[in-house]
């Protein structure tokens, strides 16, 4: 056989291989270009087909999480390959495109920061895009065709390619660190994700063979990267052990410095496989604040993301209030808080709740519009009400069971139900079943009184041994009894 024939056979085999290889198909493909030096903007492009009438509706959330007018961040939205009429329907979180029927349109747009620096904590959910870096949530970055997600259980296979990485910078997000990423997600998890790039620093550790990433930027005044990174490592390990759980994919955390001067502010949001965090970069923020924040935000992996609320705001007493309580309880369990420090934190929150002029508002009045429409005044109400009630029933369950059970058992039961039934949603009736199991019928009356009606808790004769109540201006405050065995009290509180 001649050399020419051998070469021809090899060529035929290569061609046959190319013909049989299938191109991977995606429901959506986005190309995102980091354009920080010039605008700065994030420039997005994707393709999608109009319907038989030439209509393409895009979901883009204009108002959420206390922020309004996010449409102001959209720049240069256009259809590249056809004439089109584009209209913004702000109150419906919708963008309407009218063009040629059954035509694949090439859509491009830019996302820009719409506020002036300096960056403060209350900016944290808006697109943050500067000449040095960007920090954007998925809900602020992606326009999504309305027929992609027709229900909350629908999933889409999405590919995102990144261009224009800043010199010596990184790209990172809730789905990892690759420049081309493919993931299959529902709408909630696409929108509840974060994307960062620019002058961030990245650290990584393995938890049960899964990568956990931490990214931050700036020159922190009161601590170094390693301090916070170690807090994250310990929190990830301890909480997964508490929940008897693990992580199924990579997990990512961001920490962004904000510029408050005369006070400090910390905050964040917990997602399914990531969370974002923000903290004032000044002398007032200490590592203990970061430890509490990381305990709180990681807890949302279970409280809010796995055990999901039926009615988001009206169950904030659970997803935020119980999360608030367990942030402190797990710090106590992990010996990061002493008994006195734990009681001080609980007392402080109880005092603030009792002094709040809105503390008696019935839970039914705490609607989405009420809460987010007056976020400044209502923000802490479900956090404090839920924590106070969680502390109460934690002690009640311990006393009734002679310290064989605690609120931990309720939480683990709820998690087991949520994992076995993905349609389960936490509502009043689901929680009442747990109360009946561990506390009996009278607990239903107390739930209605303290959670639904908003009546304050007195805690009379319902506290663990070794503690006493001192009323200061009619506000119950917990103190240690005289000659108490602190080790025994800690054991009872940690249970």
From TrEMBL:
InterPro entries for this protein: Peptidase_M4/M1_CTD_sf, Peptidase_M61_catalytic
Keyword Ion transport among record annotations: no
Keywords from the UniProt entry: Aminopeptidase, Hydrolase, Protease
Recorded superkingdom: Bacteria
Domain Peptidase M61 catalytic: 292-376
Gene Ontology MF terms in the entry: aminopeptidase activity
PROSITE patterns cross-referenced by the UniProt entry: PROKAR_LIPOPROTEIN
Pfam families the record matches: Peptidase_M61
Protein name: M61 glycyl aminopeptidase
Species per Swiss-Prot/TrEMBL record: Ichthyenterobacterium magnum
């Amino acid at each position: 056989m001649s050399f020419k024939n051998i070469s021809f056979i090899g060529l035929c085999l290569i061609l046959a291989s190319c013909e049989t290889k299938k191109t991977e198909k995606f429901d959506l493909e986005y190309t995102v270009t980091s354009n920080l030096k010039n605008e700065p903007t994030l420039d997005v492009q994707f393709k999608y087909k109009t319907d038989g009438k030439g209509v393409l509706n895009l979901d883009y959330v204009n108002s959420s999480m206390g922020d309004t007018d996010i449409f102001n961040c959209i720049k240069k939205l256009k259809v590249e390959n056809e004439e089109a009429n584009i209209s913004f329907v702000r109150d419906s979180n919708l963008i309407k495109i009218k063009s040629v029927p059954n035509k694949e349109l090439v859509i491009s747009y830019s996302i820009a920061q719409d506020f002036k620096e300096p960056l403060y904590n209350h900016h944290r959910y808006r697109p943050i895009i500067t000449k040095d870096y960007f920090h954007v949530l998925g809900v602020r970055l992606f326009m999504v065709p309305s027929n992609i997600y027709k229900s909350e259980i629908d999933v889409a296979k999405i590919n995102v390619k990144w261009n224009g990485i800043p010199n010596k910078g990184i790209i990172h997000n809730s789905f990892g660190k690759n420049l081309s990423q493919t993931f299959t997600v529902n709408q909630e998890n696409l929108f509840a994700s974060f994307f960062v790039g620019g002058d961030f620093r990245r650290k990584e550790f393995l938890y049960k063979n899964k990568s956990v990433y931490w990214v931050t930027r700036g020159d922190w005044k009161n601590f170094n990267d390693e301090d916070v990174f170690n807090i994250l490592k310990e929190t990830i390990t301890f909480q997964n052990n508490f929940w008897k759980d693990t992580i199924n994919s990579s997990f990512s955390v961001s920490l962004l410095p904000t510029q408050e001067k005369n006070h400090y502010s910390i905050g964040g949001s917990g997602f399914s496989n990531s969370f974002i965090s923000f903290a004032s970069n000044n002398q007032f923020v200490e590592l203990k604040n970061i430890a509490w924040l990381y305990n709180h935000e990681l807890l949302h992996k279970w409280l809010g993301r796995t055990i999901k609320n039926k009615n988001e705001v009206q169950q904030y007493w659970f997803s935020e209030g119980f999360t608030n309580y367990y942030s402190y309880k797990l710090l106590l369990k992990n010996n990061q808080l002493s008994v006195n420090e734990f009681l001080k934190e609980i007392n402080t929150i109880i005092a603030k709740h009792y002094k709040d002029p809105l503390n008696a508002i019935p839970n039914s009045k705490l609607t989405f519009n009420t809460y987010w429409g007056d976020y400044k005044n209502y923000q802490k109400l479900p956090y404090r009400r839920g924590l106070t009630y969680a502390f109460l029933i934690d002690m009640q369950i311990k006393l009734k069971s002679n310290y064989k059970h605690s609120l931990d058992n309720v939480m683990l039961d709820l998690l087991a139900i949520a994992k076995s039934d993905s349609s389960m949603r936490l509502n009043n009736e689901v929680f009442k079943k747990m109360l009946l199991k561990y506390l009996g019928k009278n607990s239903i009356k107390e739930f209605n009184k303290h959670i639904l009606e908003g009546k304050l808790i007195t805690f009379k004769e319902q506290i663990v041994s070794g503690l006493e109540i001192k009323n200061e201006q009619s506000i119950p405050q917990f103190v240690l009894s005289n000659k108490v065995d602190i080790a025994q009290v800690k054991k009872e509180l940690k249970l």
